[in-house]
Amino acid sequence: MPRPTAATQTRFTPAGFRSALLGWYDGNRRELPWRATRDPYRVWISEVMLQQTTVRTVEPRWRRFLEKYPDVEALARAPLDDVVAEWSGLGYYTRARNLHAAARRIVEDFSGRVPATFEELLSLPGMGTYTAAAVASIGFGAPVAVLDANVERVIARLDAFATEIRSPAAKRHLSARAQELLEPARPGDWNQAMMELGALVCLPRAPQCAACPVAAFCAGRVGGTPEDFPVKRPKPPMEEVREVAVVLRREARVLILQRPAQGSFAGMWETPRGRVDEAEPVRDAVVRIAREQTGLECTTGAPLLRLRHVVMRTKIDLHVWSARQDGGRIKRASHAAHEWTLPAEWLERPISTTQKEIARFLLDGRIPRRAAPVEESPGQPDLFDGE
Ligand code: SF4
């Protein structure tokens, strides 16, 4: 196939470009449930869920969330813990807390109606420029361009934009360019079309230029290596850490701690857990972490599970061990509250995906699919029951 040259690039005109992209979007867009509505509340929930979570995961969860909280008032009335528990499995729980806080603000300050302007939306807790632009344009037809990773990539390739993408200068340029390209007559569809092009055609590693509706306008394609854009500084290497989770049992109950209201995994209930140095045997770390986090002295039991997972740029190798309390009184260290609870009750509370796997294992012995083999003979969920 002949390599594209400058001669094969059509002179850019906003009208030609917009017509090519919207024509493609109208005929090729995915039918997603949130695209069947312009209700700003529903659009807002979908946009928040879709940050950091795949479309496939979001589809059923979006429906379920809206069945439970069909409008802003219902969300604002709900206890925060219920909303966070409903968010379980979607990750990045601050999103749920912010949604709840924003719903309350909308009820107090905007009579329960999602505000219609970009500026008012931006004043709500947790509302960033991307979400405010998406809700304003899709829900209210406001001519505000969105700029997410898909749109950034598309524009960087269209313009063969050679500035490092995370620099303030690049952000300013891309933001202004996105606004310049926007089709003012159909801003909601336009924004979704730009994102859809990035999600389906202008893929990060393998852009499908041969199938691209705007290939004729693309300077990155003309250069022959569109995948060189956007220009990015290499990411720092992933950090690898070992952690221990301590399952302290009291008959059928297990000790769980509630994380503080601020910070990562805010308000979630979890076993005592902490990092382990490379040199420290996991058995010793179980005793140390139980003492540091709860004030309790304990005897190490057996390894129950080993779970490997990734949080942001950290690979975590989590060793879950049972332990028996020997003495001491619970003191509050870094946690906000503690309880001896049944695994089934624990599962009803705000809980992270990994801790949910531990609770399920304690409840019915279910071993998560992603569990790695434990290094010593594994224990049973009820190891210390009846002792
Ligand atoms: Fe992306 Fe290729 Fe289309 Fe350019 S031509 S926008 S690089 S898919």
In total, the number of strands is 7
Main structural class? alpha+beta
Spans of at least 5 consecutive residues whose pLDDT stays below 50 are 383-387
The number of helical segments is 15
Helix content: 40-55%
**Can you tell me the number of structural domains?**
2
Could you give the order of the helices and strands? HHHHHHHHHHHHEEEEHEEEHH
Would you give the CATH topology of the largest domain? Endonuclease III, domain 1
Largest sheet: 7 strands, mixed
Oligomer: single chain
Ions, cofactors, ligands: which are bound?
iron/sulfur cluster
What is the CA-based Rg, rounded? 25 Å
Find the CATH superfamily of the largest domain. Answer: Hypothetical protein, domain 2
| Average pLDDT, all residues | 92
The outline comes out as globular
Look at the structure and give the CATH class of the largest domain.
Answer: Mainly Alpha
Strand content: 5-15%
Task: Report, as a whole number of angstroms, the end-to-end distance.
Answer: 75 Å
**In CATH terms, what is the architecture of the largest domain?**
Orthogonal Bundle
Task: Summarize the topology.
Blueprint: H1 14-28, H2 40-50, H3 55-68, H4 72-77, H5 80-86, H6 94-109, H7 118-122, H8 129-140, H9 149-158, H10 168-181, H11 187-200, H12 219-223, E1 239-250, E2 253-258, E3 269-270, E4 273-276, H13 282-294, E5 297-311, E6 314-327, E7 337-341, H14 343-346, H15 353-364
Parallel strand pairs: 1-6
Antiparallel strand pairs: 1-2, 1-4, 2-3, 2-7, 5-6
Bound molecules: iron/sulfur cluster.
Iron/sulfur cluster (SF4) binds next to helix 9 and helix 12.
